[in-house]
Q: What sequence folds into this?
């Protein structure tokens, strides 16, 4: 009978095997072998609870059989009764210390429970019994992977690849290791193999789709997910969001909008989906559909704040239509602070300081310490009682749970407005000193590279714009304006998912000069990274975190139709702005003199580049336009030969005005002296 049962199992005839095992167990109720066979057959049908009852009866009949306790331990593991499983493994090993499968299973259980040291100890013991067993190598690979030793895990897994073939655990280790090393194509191959042997391949498809997208095939990624859609649970929502992202990247805007609408119908407060929707509408210039969709959602969900926020973004700030939307929001959600903050901003756009104060007092009555309102009240009272208002800033800082760096920077601005320049300098320097451990060191500039003997060849139409600006230049306003106008701006170098191409790292300049990096490699890696950054091609605006003229020889061959777009102001204003407001790239500000020396070097590079015509470049002077978005749009549009829509006016700006550096000559005279020569070269007056 036993042979017939196991022969049926080999044929995957599980129902037949269970029927035969039941017949045998009924005929011989005192047979441990019959109960063991029944447990094995039931386990194949995933009837684990009934299988456990059968194996419990078998161990009761033959308590000294290690193999029965081993099967019992395995079934307890499958039903997540891990403590009982550990005990059963211990019994099995106590009855037969040389039972290799028990050590192997117990080591796997230790991995499941996260006890890596125990798993490692068990594999060493098991290796004395079967030193060459590839399953032990697989456990060692898994341990290495969980400890972050990715290269070791990958080497071990590859060494047993031919032996274990499509073992699911082996494929999981390979897939995870390749994923960790960002070897996308190998990871995709491993996950596809895992999908072919997984009990439910659908669980692996989203990861495969993501890897396909990373390799620049978003349309294929969407196609991989499409068969999985149709559920309304949270997993389904995740798929809908992913589908929308891939469809957008593939240029299928209509399909993306459909997925996003389904997400919001179920979870109207899904802010990520809402943001992608806004981006899709903006890309299609489809305001009509945007208004209709949001109004329909608001009719059903008038208490969802994020929908109201999105709706206000569709109207011109300060317009009558915008005010009407905000009034409806306030009516739908009275005493809702975000709605009142929108009203506060509307009063700011209208140039109504009295109205701003009224709204601000309503906000602080609901939420004392709310900075948006407190700042309005402090600035309104600054002229009448500066000491009391500055003390209020300290009180607000004490109320904040997080780091009050922004508040102290604002306090320095308030001190500046009161003419207390020495106090302002001290406040700003304390902020930089506290942030120094979390700031990047100032990169060194290399000597001018060879290859500048002749001006660059006259390029064709500009395809790629490389954007760079030193702290205080206001280059971030240029990037923001271009992005709002719908240009293909890549600003990811300043975020957590920055690309890893050579233009990301300042040591690239040295590598180019010493020959460890070639121009061809730089160009190839930059173009490869573009695919993973969602770029439509080389017609992009790439915002760089650093620049060095040592790049010029490589760029003349690799990006001859590129252009460097930079921004400057009076260098002394730039130094003061860097000190008072920081910079987009979190660079250290060692001291005013050291910062000025570095800033002078950076600006001399730009002047030299333009003077020698070594590479196409344009320097924008933003002294007058930095705080005037409409003027900035005209200025940038004129340089690029395009017409840019005027962005909304800025309100609540807390940045120092052009020429403010002259008020700080007593405190920063030595630093300003270092910047005066390059300021004169840029066309600014000496004093």
A:
């Amino acid at each position: 009978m036993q042979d017939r049962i196991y022969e049926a199992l080999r044929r995957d005839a599980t129902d037949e095997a269970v029927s035969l095992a039941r017949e045998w167990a009924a005929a011989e109720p005192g047979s441990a072998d019959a109960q063991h066979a029944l447990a094995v057959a039931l386990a194949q049908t995933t009837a684990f609870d009934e299988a456990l009852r059968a194996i419990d009866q078998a161990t009761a009949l033959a308590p000294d059989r290690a193999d029965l306790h081993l099967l019992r331990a395995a079934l307890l593991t499958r039903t997540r009764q891990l403590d009982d499983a550990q005990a059963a493994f211990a019994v099995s090993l106590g009855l037969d210390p040389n039972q290799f499968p028990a050590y192997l299973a117990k080591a796997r259980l230790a991995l499941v429970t996260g006890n890596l040291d125990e798993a490692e100890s068990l594999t060493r013991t098991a290796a004395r019994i079967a030193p060459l067993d590839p399953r032990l190598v697989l456990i060692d690979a898994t341990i290495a992977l969980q400890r972050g030793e990715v290269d070791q895990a990958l080497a071990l897994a590859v060494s047993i690849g031919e032996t274990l073939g499509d073992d699911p655990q082996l494929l999981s280790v390979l897939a995870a290791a390749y994923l960790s090393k960002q070897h996308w194509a190998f990871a995709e191959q491993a996950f596809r193999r895992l999908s072919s042997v997984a009990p439910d391949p659908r669980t692996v498809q989203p990861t495969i789709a993501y890897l396909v997208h990373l390799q620049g095939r978003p349309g294929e990624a969407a196609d991989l997910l499409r068969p999985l859609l149709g559920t309304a649970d949270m997993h389904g929502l995740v798929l809908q969001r992913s589908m929308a992202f891939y469809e957008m990247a593939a240029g299928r805007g209509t399909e993306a909008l459909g997925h996003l609408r389904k997400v919001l119908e179920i979870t109207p407060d899904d802010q990520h989906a809402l943001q992608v929707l806004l981006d899709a509408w903006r890309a299609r210039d489809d305001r009509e559909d945007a208004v209709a969709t949001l109004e329909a959602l608001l009719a059903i969900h008038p208490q969802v704040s994020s929908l109201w926020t999105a709706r206000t973004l569709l109207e011109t700030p300060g317009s009558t239509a915008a005010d009407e939307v905000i009034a409806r929001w306030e009516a739908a959600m009275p005493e809702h602070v975000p709605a009142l903050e929108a009203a506060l901003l509307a009063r700011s756009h209208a140039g109504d300081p009295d109205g701003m104060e009224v709204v601000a007092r309503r906000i602080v009555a609901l939420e004392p310490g709310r900075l948006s309102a407190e700042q309005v009240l402090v600035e309104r009272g600054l002229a009448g009682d500066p000491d009391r208002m500055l003390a209020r800033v300290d009180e607000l800082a004490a109320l904040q749970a997080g780091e009050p760096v922004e508040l102290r920077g604002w306090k320095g601005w308030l001190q500046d407005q009161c003419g207390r320049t020495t106090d302002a300098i001290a406040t700003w320097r304390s902020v930089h000193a506290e942030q120094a451990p979390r700031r990047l060191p100032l990169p060194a500039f290399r000597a001018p590279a060879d290859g500048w003997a002749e001006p660059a060849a006259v390029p064709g139409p500009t395809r790629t714009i490389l954007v760079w600006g030193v702290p205080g230049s206001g280059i971030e306003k240029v990037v923001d304006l271009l992005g709002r106008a719908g240009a293909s701006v890549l600003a990811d170098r300043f975020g957590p998912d920055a690309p890893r191409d050579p233009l990301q790292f300042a040591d690239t300049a040295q590598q180019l000069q010493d020959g460890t990096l070639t121009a061809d490699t730089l160009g190839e890696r930059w173009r490869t990274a573009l695919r993973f950054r969602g770029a439509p091609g080389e017609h992009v605006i790439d915002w760089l975190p650093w620049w060095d003229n040592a790049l010029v020889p490589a760029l003349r061959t690799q990006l001859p139709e590129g252009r460097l777009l930079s921004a400057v102001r009076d260098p002394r204003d730039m130094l003061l702005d860097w000190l008072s407001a920081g910079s987009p790239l979190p660079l250290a500000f060692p001291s005013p003199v050291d910062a000025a020396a570095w800033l002078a070097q950076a600006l001399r590079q730009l002047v030299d580049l333009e003077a020698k015509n070594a590479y196409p470049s344009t320097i924008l002077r933003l002294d007058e336009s930095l705080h005037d978005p409409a003027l900035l749009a005209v200025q940038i549009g004129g340089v690029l030969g395009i017409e840019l829509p005027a962005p909304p006016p800025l309100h609540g700006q807390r940045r120092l005005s052009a020429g403010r550096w002259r008020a700080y000559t007593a405190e920063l005279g030595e630093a300003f002296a270092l910047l005066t020569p390059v300021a004169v070269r840029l066309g600014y007056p000496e004093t």
